[in-house]
Write a structure and sequence with these properties.
Blueprint: H1 3-11, H2 15-26, H3 32-38, H4 42-57, H5 74-87, E1 92-93, H6 107-116, E2 118-119
Antiparallel strand pairs: 1-2
Helix pairs in contact: 2-3
Length: 129
């Protein structure tokens, strides 16, 4: 995002939206406004996303492994890619693989968590109520 785009988005936001974004980031949560404005290396993430989409369009498999130490922006980058995918019309699902919440070796539990957290483009609805 260029400086002009950043300034335009920031100028169009009300105080509540900006304060909510900052407070959510302080709590370790993600706000779509904050993710959109505060994503570093956006062009690299866009390139990774576009490469994956182009491979899928050719019926080729693709994957992305995000690794890093605590606080290096893994979750933030994934939140950015999720927003990009929803904007392009993809259905997404996001879970935290944590043995205290979802036991990764229990495929039924992983599948149930993935299905219950499906997000549809341009919608707040999900499959499970």
């Amino acid at each position: 995002m260029g400086r002009e785009d950043f300034t335009q988005i920031l100028a169009g936001a009300d105080n509540f939206t900006m304060r909510r974004a900052v407070e959510r980031l302080r709590e370790g949560l993600f706000d779509s406004f904050g993710v959109r404005l505060l994503t570093a290396r956006e062009s690299q993430l866009d390139e990774v996303f576009d490469t994956g989409v182009n491979r899928l369009a050719k019926n080729e498999s693709t994957h992305l492994c995000v690794c890093g130490s605590y606080g290096q922006g893994k979750s933030h980058s994934l939140a950015y890619l999720r927003q990009r995918a929803l904007a392009r019309g993809f259905v997404t699902s996001q879970i935290n693989v944590d043995p205290r919440e979802i036991r990764f070796h229990d495929f039924r539990q992983v599948y149930k968590a993935l299905v219950s957290r499906i997000s549809f483009p341009n919608s707040d609805s999900s499959l499970v109520k």
